[in-house]
Amino acid sequence: MYHFREVIESIPRSEFNGQSSMGATQFPGGCCDDSSHLLAEYVFQELNLILDLVHGEFGGLNNEIRSHAWLSCDDVIIDITYDQFDWRGYHFPSVYLGFAGDFHSTFTIKTKPDARYTQLSDQGGLGGAYAVVSARL
Question: Which member of 67, 82, 87, 112 lies 3.0 to 4.6 Å from 96 by CB, making a disulfide possible if both were Cys?
Answer without folding.
Answer: 82
